Task: inverse folding
């Protein structure tokens, strides 16, 4: 691992002050400080609510940002635009071969951002320790069921044991917190809410239920079939009353304490109780596009100007201009709403 005392992160370029200080402000009083970076659009699962069984056409290699390009753009965000948290996503980010080196390079930036990872957990068991040593601070693992047959039905892969091993390895590596993201689907796993809470309590991980969002490649999402936050609460009621906790801030999850157990559970109601007004996130896709929202239908290209020789000032100005045009909300409830052309696997969580 590269020494934290070096000024220039491996793969980046030297930091130079901007002639004009900038921030990622939009016209609705929000400032983006949380950067979600998609490292790849590829995935080793085929979750039914994300992509078809045969997969999707992957991005060509020459359209993907190189490691150096990734670090350069992340560096512009961290050193010049006020990014304080960098979350690495996919597709499946563990499929990026040099993930540990990318984490290490991000950890060298000054000011050092918090570094997080969202993963399906496959392959994590053998890499969690190295990722923690490289500078990873915390991790989210997607897991919708702890039943092997249901896992196979949902993901079209028999890999539950690998994911569970990854959860344990993350905790053993000292990553804190370890959060579990679960989507409940009607008639498939919605009966498992209480079982998931009991499992999370035993494992010492934080569980968050997420409303299913219209981000599937097939565009088959049906709001009427979605398990809402209110329904999630009803399913948890068998474990005791839900006590709302304060201190949500700009975080997407509403937090609750369950009965006398003391266990905390989160509910992310992106559809029925949107939190757009406090959103502090911006996204960088694996092919170098800035997206202001998961549901955005427009993007701003940073890859082309970067490859054409744009300096940090020019890249920062382009990025700031892109965020300035951010809409007030995702618009799912608007009759004119259309799903984004990119599926979740190509946007990043």
Result:
């Amino acid at each position: 691992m590269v020494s934290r005392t070096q000024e220039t992160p491996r793969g980046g370029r030297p930091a130079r002050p901007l002639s004009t200080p900038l921030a990622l402000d939009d016209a609705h009083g929000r400032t983006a400080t949380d950067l979600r970076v998609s490292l790849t659009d590829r995935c080793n699962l085929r979750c039914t609510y994300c992509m078809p069984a045969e997969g999707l056409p992957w991005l060509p290699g020459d359209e993907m940002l190189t490691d150096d390009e990734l670090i350069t753009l992340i560096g512009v965000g961290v050193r010049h635009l006020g990014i304080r948290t960098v979350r690495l996503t996919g597709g499946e980010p563990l499929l990026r071969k040099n993930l540990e080196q990318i984490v290490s390079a991000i950890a060298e930036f000054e000011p050092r951002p918090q570094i997080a990872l969202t993963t399906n957990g496959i392959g994590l068991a053998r890499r969690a320790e190295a990722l923690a040593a490289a500078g990873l601070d915390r991790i989210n693992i997607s897991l919708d069921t702890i039943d092997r047959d249901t896992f196979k039905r949902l993901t079209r892969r028999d890999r539950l044991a690998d994911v569970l091993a990854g959860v344990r390895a993350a905790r053993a590596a000292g990553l804190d917190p370890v959060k579990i993201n679960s989507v409940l689907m009607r008639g498939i796993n919605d009966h498992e809410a209480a079982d998931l809470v009991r499992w999370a309590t035993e494992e010492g991980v934080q569980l968050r239920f997420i409303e299913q969002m219209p981000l599937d490649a097939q565009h088959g999402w049906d709001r009427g079939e979605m398990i809402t936050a209110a329904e999630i609460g009803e399913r948890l009621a068998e474990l005791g009353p839900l006590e709302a906790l304060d201190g949500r801030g700009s975080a997407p999850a509403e937090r609750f304490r369950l009965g006398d157990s003391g266990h905390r559970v989160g509910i992310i109601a992106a559809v029925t109780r949107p939190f757009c007004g406090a959103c502090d996130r911006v996204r960088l896709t694996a092919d170098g596009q800035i997206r202001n929202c998961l549901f955005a239908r427009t993007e701003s290209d940073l890859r082309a100007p970067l490859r054409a020789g744009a300096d940090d000032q020019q890249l920062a100005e382009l990025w700031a201009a892109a965020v300035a045009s951010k809409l007030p909300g995702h618009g799912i409830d608007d009759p004119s709403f259309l799903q984004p052309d990119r599926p979740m696997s190509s946007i990043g969580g």
